Please model this.
Amino acid sequence: MTTGISVFKGVQTALATPMLDGEIAWKDMEKLILSQLEQGVDGLVAVGTTGESPTLNDEEHIEVIRRTREIANGRTPVIAGTGSNSTVEAVRLSQQAEAVGADALLLVAPYYNKPNQEGLFLHFSEVAKGTRLPILLYSIPSRCGIEIGVDTVARLHEKFPHVCGIKEAGGSCDRVAELKAALDDNFSIMSGDDALTLPFLSLGAHGVVSVASNLYVEPLRKMVKAAQNNLPEAQEIFQRFAPLFSALFVEPNPVPVKVALAEKGLISSPEVRLPLAPASEATFNLISRVLTALR
Model:
């Protein structure tokens, strides 16, 4: 049986979806993915928030997953974002992602309609019944208005062992400790916030789904590994990259990271789709200063 620890660990990049003139820039996407593979990324998360999933149509959504899997070619797992506030849509997207070769799924809590914990359990249960792929739950109350309760996570994992991880983006170290106490050793906890990765690792988390690793994979992988046996080294790396972690969220994600990717020449344009607005001049200047300091 595939376990959470074997799939959800290390540094998993929440991939940006490059855009150009309103369309997905497929050549840029390939360039970005190949850069990730060359740096030894532990996994690629396609079509999450950083991938602008809310503004991709269904055809684009599945095509990004398919091409990511094709380019990765088995060199690293591809985790497909297939969450929705519609259970039927989440099941359908998950099954389509499985059909085009995704290795695992990322399922965000339903947003806007704010189900209670029983609704969350039933929602994720329907997806789990419809796929054999490992499932990484995604709790981010700031975007969804609700969190996936620890008891709900434990209940899902007990009934569906392939619900075997969570991307925790609630900003609480207490939550990590509670999840560790409630789940077994086959369940993985991934930080959903670069700025909290080191504190979460110290409490037993297994890695990070990272925005910053679109830009820098190797040092962040080194930090995650060092957190287990060389804390001073991990702290040194964390402090070095802390300004970047902050700068990447001065405007809504993925606006700043696309500015940084364009600055580094990894994509052609920092373009985002409406309703996200282009980055301000202040953000361009901040990103430029932060990247210069990291050279």
Notes: The radius of gyration is 18 Å. The longest helix spans residues 231-247.
